Amino acid sequence: MESIGVAMTTPMFTYLEQQLERRFNLFKLWNHPLDSHFLQENAQSIRAVVGCTKSGADACLIDSFPALEIVATFSVGLDKIDLPKCMEKGIRVVNTPDVLTDDVADAAIGLAMAVSRRISESDRFVRSGSWTKDRFGLATRFNGKSVGILGLGRIGSAIAKRAEAFGCLIGYSARSEKHHSGYKYFPSVLDLAANSQILFVSCALTEETRHIVNREVINALGPNGILINVGRGAHVDESELVSALLEGRLGGAGLDVFENEPHVPEQLFELGNVVLLPHVGTDTIETSIAMANLVISNLEAHFRNEPLITPVI
Ligand SMILES: O=CC(=O)O
């Protein structure tokens, strides 16, 4: 397979780069301006694109490679791939589901715990020397809270399972009711938020779920409510979130994702009731290796004309 051109859109994980380099003719696109010279020399040999949450395959990139057969994303999220375009051109698409589910769910619970028990804030209190002069105030418990989950897919279900172990009462919103889950279904996101003390966002980003957490949903969650987002930044109307936190209309937030990564609204930096992560929900060594291996196995299967392991299209 050494002669097959594979284009990686941005640096994502050194191990993945090394494994791709061993098997394919790897083009690291960040080292090559996508100019006419590069395309003239290489476009015909590039049969696969490997993208990620930062940089996937938009219509322009897809059109640049006329021999493109498959797009593999080093992520479960598909929002950086022009799926209709891939469908139209008969380009296969694969992602990395399942292997990352537990780590994202762990990160979500970690954020909920960090916000409710004020863990990051109390860590800063100790480091700054404030403990020698003052007492740290009270937090609120995580266990036993009513939890709402937006999207009861693989990750949402893993969050629910963990929250259940903490004695939380689970409700969810999803496109359809999952009768076997045993959790309370809320057809309306607004009702879910009104009945939750902590709202987790873990659905896929689509046109229907963009800004699904809007001003009304935030207000329904209320001044004691906590929002946890491990989905995508665009699930939440970020400027509404910032003003709700500044005005005390929302109790707190734990965010792994933002609308314009890596840029985060600076007003959030001043708020103690907010915990901010740099989109690291999947970033453990174990999961990253499993994701990379899945990308490789899918590409190898494709080029051997074998069934794809995790096909999207
Ligand atoms: O955000 C992470 C992913 O989509 O895998």
Termini separation comes to 22 Å
Q: Overall pLDDT, averaged?
A: 97
Order of helices and strands: EHEHEHEHEHHEHEEHEHEHEEH
Q: Sheet with the most strands?
A: 7 strands, parallel
Based on CA atoms alone, the radius of gyration comes out at 21 Å
Q: Strands of the biggest beta sheet: in what spatial order?
A: 8-7-6-9-10-11-12
Annotation field: number of helices: 11
Domain D-isomer specific 2-hydroxyacid dehydrogenase catalytic: 26-312
Organism: Citrullus colocynthis
Domain D-isomer specific 2-hydroxyacid dehydrogenase NAD-binding: 109-281
Protein name: Hydroxyphenylpyruvate reductase
Walk me through the topology.
Blueprint (H helix, E strand, L loop, with lengths): L4 E4 L5 H10 L1 E4 L7 H7 L3 E6 L7 H6 L5 E4 L9 H7 L2 E3 L6 H16 L2 H9 L18 E5 L3 H12 L3 E5 L10 E2 L3 H6 L3 E4 L13 H7 L4 E4 L8 H9 L5 E4 L18 E3 L8 H19 L10
Parallel strand pairs: 1-2, 1-3, 3-4, 4-5, 6-7, 6-9, 7-8, 9-10, 10-11, 11-12
The protein binds glyoxylic acid (GLV).
Pfam families: 2-Hacid_dh (PF00389), 2-Hacid_dh_C (PF02826)
Protein name: Hydroxyphenylpyruvate reductase
Keywords: Oxidoreductase
Q: Can you tell me about this structure?
A:
- The protein has a seven-stranded parallel beta sheet. It has a five-stranded parallel beta sheet with strand order 2-1-3-4-5, sandwiched between helices.
- The protein has helices at 14-23, 36-42, 59-64, 83-89, 101-116, 119-127, 154-165, 189-194, 215-221, 238-246, 285-303; strands spanning 5-8, 25-28, 46-51, 70-73, 92-94, 146-150, 169-173, 184-185, 198-201, 226-229, 252-255, 274-276.
- The model has no long low-confidence stretch (mean pLDDT 97).
- With 313 residues, the chain is α/β, with parallel strands linked by helices.
- The radius of gyration is 21 Å and the shape is elongated.
- β3, α3 (59-64) and β4 (70-73) form a beta-alpha-beta unit.
- It binds glyoxylic acid (GLV).
- Residues 53, 75-77, 100, 281-282 line the site of glyoxylic acid (GLV).
- Glyoxylic acid binds at residues 53, 75-77, 100, 281-282.
